[in-house]
Amino acid sequence: MELISIAIDGPAAAGKSTVAKQIAKKLGIIYVDTGAMYRALTYQTLQENIDLEDEKAVMEILNKIDIRLAQDKEGQRVFINEKDVTEAVRYPDVTASVSVIAKHPLVRKKMVAAQQELAQDNSVVMDGRDIGSHVLPDADVKIFLIASVTERAKRRFEENRQKGIPADLHTLEKEIEKRDELDSTREASPLVKAEDAVELDTTSLSIDDVTNKILEICQPFI
Ligand code: C5P
User: Fold this and answer.
1) pTM to 2 decimals?
2) What is the pLDDT of residues 156-177, one digit of tens each?
3) β-strand partners of 87
4) How far is Cα 97 from Cα 54, in angstroms, rounded to an integer?
5) Hey, is 87 helix, strand or coil?
6) Beta-sheet pairing, 124-128 with 30-33
7) Whose CA is nearest to atom 16 of ligand 1?
8) What is the torsion angle, in degrees rounded to the nearest 10, for the CA atoms of residue 36, residue 82, residue 116 and residue 110?
9) Looking at residue 137, what is its pLDDT?
10) Residues 6+ apart with CB under 8 A from 2
11) Do 98 and 175 meet the contact criterion of CB atoms below 8 Å apart?
12) pLDDT exceeding 90 applies to what percent of the chain?
């Protein structure tokens, strides 16, 4: 089989990872959650009490740790060296700081190279903010998922509740808006819809509806 690459981008909590995991399962290909890589670095930076704005110090951390994504039945687990940080990287302190870490150009350069390497020898469905526009500009399929802020906050609230992560709906809405603003306005590969991406508004669609629509778009490449 030819390799296939599917890029799924969009703002925070638009349902990218849930849908990407389902697609990966259905097609039997690898799921790469690029946000988890930025989250892992943020987690480690917070652990070491390093100034998030200090790109040089953040790069020193990135250069000394190994961030690894491992596939499992549920989707993907995230490791820093041998430590499983899958749950830890979803906690509110990491979420509140990740966009500061992700704006550093040197950080992005290294992360993007690792992501491109993963797609070189594997069929992948990769989700993030700059996959179609920057990481995999030649992806076979590019999707840009959007949904209203209210709907995205509700979904994230429910997701957090199920995981036992403390959350408040209004705070989530504010956090999502702030993260979108930072991600869209940074200089290095901001959140942007690639010109050739298909935009899907998922506000009133179920996860299965979105997955099926994307699978239809992928059909010619399977
Ligand atoms: O997708 P998720 O919400 O986990 O991403 C966390 C953060 O990581 C985003 O808000 C963004 O700042 C950063 N990110 C990015 N580029 C990507 C994926 C995530 O800048 N490709």
Assistant:
1) 0.97
2) 999 889 988 888 999 999 999 9
3) none
4) 13
5) coil
6) parallel
7) 129
8) 80
9) 98
10) 221
11) no
12) 93
**Cα 96 to ligand 1 centroid, rounded to whole Å:** 11
The residue ranges of DSSP E strands in the chain, in sequence order, are 5-9, 30-33, 67-72, 75-80, 83-84, 124-128, 141-146, 198-201
Low-confidence ranges of the chain (pLDDT < 70): 1
DSSP 100: H
Q: What is the pLDDT of residue 72?
A: 87
CA 87 to CA 17: how far, in whole Å? 15
13: left (phi over 0), alpha (psi -120 to 50) or beta: left
pLDDT at 75: 81
Structure tokens at 94: 């990491």
Exposed, middle or buried, 163 (CB in 10 Å: 0-12/13-18/19+)?
A: exposed
Vertex 125 angle, CA 123 and 127, to 5°: 145
Residue 213 labelled as part of a binding site = no
**From ligand 1's centre to the CA of 9, what distance in Å?**
10
